Give the backbone structure.
Amino acid sequence: MTTVTLGKTGITVNKNGFGALPIQRITKEEAAKLLRKAYDGGITYFDTARAYSDSEEKIGYALSDVRNHIYLATKTAATTAEGFWKDLETSLRLLKTDCIDVYQFHNPAVCPKPGDESGLYDAALKAREQGKIRFISITNHRLAVANEAVDSGLYATLQFPFCYLCSEKDLELMEKCKKADMGFIAMKALSGGLINNSRAAYAFQAQYDSVLPIWGVQKEHELDEFLSYIDNPPVMDDEIRTLIENDRKQLFGSFCRACGYCMPCPAGIEINTCARMSLLLRRSPSHLQLTPEVQAKMMKIKDCLHCGHCMSKCPYGLNTPELLQRNLKDYEEVLAGKEILPGNF
Ligand code: SF4
Ligand code: SF4
């Protein structure tokens, strides 16, 4: 079994973390079954967030009796000390624990520091003193904030998007974390569903011994795949290398990662689905994207006010309104009979 140690935290777990965002979309009992199967299969790192609606509650429900055998990581998106304490107390209650192992600032626009105006870092220090959290950590989608967090020396771990579509700068960040003895947790290891080959995704992560990928799983068969990799980890071979090269050609650059930071949209457009529809049509079963419900979502793009709010909030610097229009054009062509082929959009 391959294990990963999260830098100076000393937390050592097998190289499969459980990303608990998708369990919001299934029932409490279904989630409990999945979480329990993950635990029984050897997964001991569970990552959630206050922002993931009932995900924390489901984890508390499913795993409180094995609390001492697992690591719990959650996140607060609070911008004030008051909000921090409210979130922390709620998370402790829902997770049914008196201490969170890895407590993360959730994608802050600026890196919290001791003595700053927000009071967030000082609140985290106090929470650690009180034994309510073990490690102060951070997640981010922005390279600049992530680099600042590593350079500050204030954080035990960084959670950052990291998959085989990542750039040289992302790889440098990961190496810098390792040198700083800081844990590196890879989110979006399947790039929001656009990477559809878990063997290739795993083989990429397996090349980096300091990286802990957290897989966002919602279905049992997805979990089964990752559990099978605990004993039989896929390795990078020529077949996987070719697949990755082809995916990089098709996906690298200006594609929407579905993070949702640009939302809500004042025109009610579900940007994190609609802005990547051309890819979803080609990389997932296309009939699921052509239902009347999805068609209605796509037609909402016509209501775009071109206010630019989405673009100003996108951490990947995407021209979101333009991307939406391109996806709509392709979608309408597909509805009119265009054949769905890789890259014909
Ligand atoms: S530019 Fe269009 S899609 Fe973006 S936030 Fe404004 S209305 Fe929504
Ligand atoms: S457009 Fe940007 S911010 Fe919005 S979901 Fe896509 S990647 Fe995220």
Q: What stands out?
A: The chain has a mean pLDDT of 94. The first strand starts at residue 3 and ends at 5. The chain is about 40% helix and 15% strand.
